[in-house]
Write a structure and sequence with these properties.
Layout: H1 8-17, H2 21-24, E1 30-34, E2 37-41, H3 51-61, E3 66-69, H4 80-86, E4 92-94, E5 107-109, H5 137-144, H6 149-157, H7 173-197, E6 204-206, H8 210-222, H9 234-240, H10 243-261, E7 267-270, E8 274-277, E9 286-289, E10 295-298, H11 316-324
Parallel strand pairs: 4-5, 4-6
Antiparallel strand pairs: 1-2, 1-3, 7-10, 8-9
Length: 345
């Protein structure tokens, strides 16, 4: 991962455009909006140390300023799905960063649809316009529809017992897990509906951000050795340590469900950063890290590589274009790291 402290939005802006943050123009995770003015919202570890920042969040609380994830308008370079639209395709995008407002030329359920962990910080998005493009309305309905099955999934992930201790700060790990589970589950359900409603899609981009939240909240229980000076209670570590692994297994099952809808599809999994411990943070003890960012690719058009690949954010778009059979755009600074395998007749 690049650019400490490894904010997600600059990473995703680079992942979806193929350009560094100096050319995408995205440096922060959130943006603020006043009538006629849009600005990037800093996210310091301790807003108390910055009175201007504290004032901006206070104005957000009384809805003078809207603070929300950056929109597509923040990008100074086109995302991959816009390139495909310009090439005559109609891709599908479900809750991917920078997909709001929904591009009417594609099939989009935008990143502002649904509740997620940003609401814990006063971020409100679901009341906005442009949450879905024409043709994706039924998928948006699936995303917004409640489902009591999420409660059953929560019980499978989280063992019964005493309330979860808050390791540091004020964020309730159980609440983070429930929100992650709910929005990721609804996102998968919306993606399934889009694939069923529109067979033969050239690309389906699906953003599942819940694992990030789960790692934030449960890292000290999974990796107590990272905190030799203040380890969690051994009973809590034994009870709550498996939650991260169980959530990863749940994600794997969801990806299997999605890929089964189009058995001949290529599947690519990309993350924005790795994870590790942090000390002194007002909210978390698990935090974004340079090492551990993921790129996985498999499918009928992907030639297997021997060993691990070295790549950057800038290589994601050229590689996806290669896998999809498109010519590499000459303006992209990155390179293709996976060679396309010819399909047999």
């Amino acid at each position: 991962a690049a650019w400490p402290p490894y904010w997600s939005a600059p990473a995703w802006a680079a992942n979806v455009t193929g350009y560094p943050r100096e050319r995408t123009g995205v440096y922060e995770d959130l943006a603020g909006e006043l009538p006629g003015i849009t600005f990037q919202q800093p996210m310091m570890l301790d807003p108390v140390l910055d009175p201007v920042l504290a004032l901006e969040y206070a104005l957000s609380a009384v809805q003078v300023i809207r603070i929300a994830p950056s929109t597509a308008r923040a990008l100074q370079r086109p995302p991959l799905w816009s390139r495909l639209v310009d090439a005559g395709e109609r891709p599908a995008v479900v809750r991917f960063p920078f997909s709001h407002p929904a591009d009417p030329r594609a099939l989009v359920v935008s990143s502002w649809a649904g509740r997620d962990e940003w609401e814990l910080g006063g971020v409100r998005t679901a009341d906005a316009a442009g949450l879905a493009s024409p043709g994706a309305e039924t998928a948006l309905t699936e995303l917004l529809r409640g489902d009591p099955a999420f409660a059953a999934d929560l019980h499978r992930l989280l063992p019964p017992g005493e309330p979860i201790p808050v390791a540091q700060g004020f964020v309730d790990p159980r609440e983070m897990l429930l929100r992650a589970l709910e929005i990721d589950g609804r996102t998968v359900r919306a993606a399934e509906r889009l694939v069923r409603d529109h067979p033969g899609l050239p690309m389906v981009a699906v953003y599942l951000g819940g694992f990030d939240s789960v790692c934030h909240a449960f890292w000290p229980y999974r990796f107590p050795e990272d905190f030799p000076d203040e380890p969690p209670d051994t009973t809590d570590a034994a009870r709550l340590g498996p939650v991260i692994d169980r959530y990863a297994e749940l994600l794997d099952g969801w990806l299997r469900r999605l890929s089964a809808l189009q058995p001949a599809a290529n599947v690519v999994v990309v993350s924005d950063h790795g994870y590790g411990p942090i000390r002194g943070h007002p909210l978390w003890r698990g935090w974004h890290a340079r090492r551990g960012a993921i790129f996985l690719a498999a499918g009928p058009d992907v030639r297997p590589a021997a060993g691990l690949l070295e790549l950057s954010y800038l290589d994601v778009v050229p590689t996806l274009l290669e896998i999809a059979g498109f010519a590499r755009a000459s303006d992209l600074p990155g390179r293709t790291v996976v060679s396309r395998r010819p399909r047999s007749a």
